[in-house]
């Protein structure tokens, strides 16, 4: 029998992380909120999904990857975004770019290559040591201009970009047992299930009554499961406190509030990604797969606005990229690459589900080019 070293290592890692989570549950009296579980599953140093050595990003499962993001899909994504970043730097009088969660480093390379000397410094804020090493290898050509940081400074200026960052921030789960007006809300967390013979206890869902509520009460007589985004909203408030001058462009999949808490979305948006397959069981294979929730863009925009930032625009990824010159970029590609890049704006691919939210810090709001046509800020 042939042993796959990668699979064996992944199994050891998963077991070690599961042990850490079991210890945390025991120390907390037998129950932890899902946000705590998600944080441990994704970010435990050396063991969590984003902190371990697994490939993660790629176009095919044969590479060992779990999902593909827009910069890996086609370099025209970064080139189109670069047009917006350049305009934003000119409008705000800044010359630095700050990227959150830079993944493989593909987007940073695309932006640096396209913007050239217009970017004086490119700082990547990433907690993952393994991803940082990959980024440093991918960005070796810009050594001296690219820096890494564990956190934002207390005050900074520049243009912030974040592609699929908000969806990876831990969320709290709320479960309503019963219909609108009469149902009782619970926070859904994680406890220990039954242990099999010669086996550690598995993880199990456990609900506790809570005073927490979603921002709107979903209509209908059905039970309802959903998420609230305290960490994402906290991130937006932190941006407002620390960004002295500049703008932020956040690209992710999600909905405005009215769609997020629609009666038909009664099973929530939480999903997992592994080997380019989607599943709905975050309690299994802890640390070996991505856990993510769609973004409530209304909550993000309100948190930013209430903390002092201007909401500069909100639209679909398709509208944003087309406004930034994607179509002319596509014309220059060979046919095979053009078909791949077109997925960035196709409605049934990334074009409609992915949105772009822009916020700005400065004395006056301005309209970025990415929202010139198709702005949906009024729907937030």
From TrEMBL:
Pfam families found in the cross-reference section: Methyltransf_28
GO BP: methylation
SUPFAM superfamilies in the cross-refs: S-adenosyl-L-methionine-dependent methyltransferases
InterPro entries: NDUFAF7, NDUFAF7_sf, SAM-dependent_MTases_sf
UniProt entry keywords in alphabetical sequence: Methyltransferase, Transferase
PANTHER family the record matches: PROTEIN ARGININE METHYLTRANSFERASE NDUFAF7, MITOCHONDRIAL
Protein name (record): SAM-dependent methyltransferase, MidA family
């Amino acid at each position: 029998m042939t042993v796959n070293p990668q699979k064996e290592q992944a199994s050891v890692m998963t077991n070690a992380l599961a042990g850490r989570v079991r210890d945390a549950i025991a120390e907390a009296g037998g129950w932890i909120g899902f946000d705590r579980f998600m944080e441990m599953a994704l970010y435990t140093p050396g063991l969590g999904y984003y902190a371990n050595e697994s490939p993660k990003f790629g176009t095919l499962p044969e590479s060992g990857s779990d999902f593909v993001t827009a910069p890996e899909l086609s370099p025209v994504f970064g080139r189109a975004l670069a047009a917006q970043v350049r305009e934003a730097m000119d409008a705000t009088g800044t010359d630095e770019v700050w990227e959150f969660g830079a993944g493989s480093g593909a987007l940073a390379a695309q932006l640096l290559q396209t913007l050239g000397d217009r970017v004086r410094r490119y700082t990547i804020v990433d907690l993952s040591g393994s991803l940082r090493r990959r980024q440093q290898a991918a960005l070796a050509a810009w050594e001296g201009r690219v820096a890494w940081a564990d956190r934002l400074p207390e005050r900074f200026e520049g243009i912030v970009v974040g592609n699929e960052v908000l969806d990876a921030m831990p969320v709290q789960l709320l479960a309503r047992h019963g219909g609108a007006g009469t149902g009782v809300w619970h926070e859904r967390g994680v406890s220990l299930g039954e242990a099999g013979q010669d086996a550690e206890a598995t993880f199990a869902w456990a609900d506790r009554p809570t005073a927490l509520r979603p921002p709107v009460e979903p209509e209908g007589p059905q039970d309802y499961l959903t998420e609230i985004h305290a960490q994402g909203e906290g991130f937006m408030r932190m941006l407002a406190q620390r960004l002295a001058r500049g703008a932020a462009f956040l690209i992710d999949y999600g909905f405005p509030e009215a769609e997020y808490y629609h009666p038909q979305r009664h099973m929530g948006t939480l999903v997992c990604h592994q080997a380019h397959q989607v599943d709905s069981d975050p309690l299994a294979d802890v640390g070996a797969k991505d856990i993510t929730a769609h973004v409530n863009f209304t909550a993000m925009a309100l948190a930013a606005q209430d903390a002092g930032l201007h909401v500069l625009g909100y639209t679909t990824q398709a509208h944003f990229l087309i406004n930034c010159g994607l179509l002319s970029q596509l014309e220059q590609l060979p046919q095979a690459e053009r078909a791949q890049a077109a997925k960035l704006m196709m409605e049934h691919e990334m074009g409609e589900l992915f949105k772009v939210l822009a916020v700005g810090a400065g004395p006056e709001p301005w309209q970025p080019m990415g929202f010139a046509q198709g702005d949906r800020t009024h729907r937030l």
